[in-house]
């Protein structure tokens, strides 16, 4: 058998070996339509958050799969080629193996490509805005509080402005306490947030929504939340903005659409 024939056979063999991990990786991403394990993490209170969590679950499953393959191969090599009384010879030594090097170069490239592709698709989904949101909320950040102003499609508008008390007395209070501003949202609805700052850069962060975005002076950031469940969630500024940055807390209260409409009407100005 010539050297060329040997190389072709090795490459074919490598190609067959590639099929197994490639199938593993593709099957993980094909699971996108299924309910994936959340590994104990809250699945998110918006469809956007759930999209991010799905990607996170896929990457964790992928990581576990890769980790298991690496661990098993290390264990196999350590046990199979261990030195013993029956086998005291040094295993075969070689300095290069082109098919193997191609194999372990292509696989990480495929993995990185899939992770990049999955991330872009998820980010595009999160950043998508609908043509006609159920509600539009103008969120204005300032040192040191938040202003929420509503402009619904039925013409009702109202302004809720809660000034955070800049005193250390509030430090022990949770974000959901009544001293802090509250952003009311209807459940199972798509709400547009129009975010800006009037002074310095702040961070609009809601952990349960898996969402954070800068509130910048002179820049308007627009995004949608599609709420899935009712609840009272904490929010905070996550960009250091000055002395009372830690006091820039707020809460997000998601209520039924009927409750939201009556609240909005009763607060209309
Ligand atoms: Cu801040």
- The backbone outline, from C-alpha atoms, is elongated
Going by CATH, the homologous superfamily of the largest domain would be: Cupredoxins -  blue copper proteins
- How many domains is the backbone divided into? 2
CATH fold call of the largest domain: Immunoglobulin-like
Compose a concise summary of this entry:
This protein has 269 residues and is α+β, with helices and mostly antiparallel strands. Helix content is 38%, strand content 24%.
Which descriptors would you attach to this protein?
2 domains; 4 helices; 10 strands; single chain; five-stranded mixed sheet; binds copper (II) ion; alpha+beta; elongated; Immunoglobulin-like
Annotate the secondary structure layout:
Layout: H1 3-30, H2 47-80, H3 98-127, E1 135-142, E2 145-151, E3 157-162, E4 182-186, E5 190-197, E6 202-206, E7 211-215, E8 221-226, E9 231-237, E10 249-255, H4 257-267
Parallel strand pairs: 1-5, 4-10
Antiparallel strand pairs: 1-2, 2-3, 5-8, 6-7, 6-9, 9-10
Helix pairs in contact: 1-2, 1-3, 2-3
The chain binds copper (II) ion (CU).
């Amino acid at each position: 058998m010539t050297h060329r024939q040997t190389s072709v056979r090795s490459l074919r063999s490598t190609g067959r070996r590639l099929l197994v991990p490639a199938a593993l990786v593709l099957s993980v991403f094909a699971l996108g339509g299924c309910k994936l394990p959340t590994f104990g993490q809250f699945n998110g209170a918006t469809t956007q958050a759930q999209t991010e969590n799905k990607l996170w679950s896929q990457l964790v499953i992928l990581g576990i799969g890769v980790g298991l393959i690496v661990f098993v191969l290390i264990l196999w090599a350590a046990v199979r080629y261990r030195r013993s009384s029956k086998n005291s010879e040094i295993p075969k030594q070689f300095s290069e193996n082109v098919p193997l090097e191609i194999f372990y170069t292509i696989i990480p490239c495929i993995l990185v490509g899939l992770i990049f592709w999955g991330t872009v698709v998820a980010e595009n989904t999160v950043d998508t805005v609908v043509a006609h949101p159920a509600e539009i909320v103008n969120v204005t950040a300032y040192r040191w509080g938040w202003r929420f102003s509503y402009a619904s499609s039925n013409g009702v508008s109202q302004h809720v402005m809660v000034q955070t008390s800049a005193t250390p007395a509030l430090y022990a209070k949770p974000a959901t306490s009544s001293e802090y501003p509250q952003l009311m949202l209807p459940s199972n609805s798509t709400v547009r947030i129009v975010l800006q700052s009037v002074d310095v850069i702040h961070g609009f962060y809601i952990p349960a929504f898996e969402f954070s975005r800068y509130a910048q002076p002179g820049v308007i950031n627009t995004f949608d939340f599609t709420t899935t469940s009712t609840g009272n969630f904490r929010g905070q500024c996550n960009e250091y903005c000055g002395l009372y940055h830690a006091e820039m807390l707020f809460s997000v209260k998601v209520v039924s659409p009927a409750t939201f409409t009556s609240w909005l009407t009763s607060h209309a100005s």
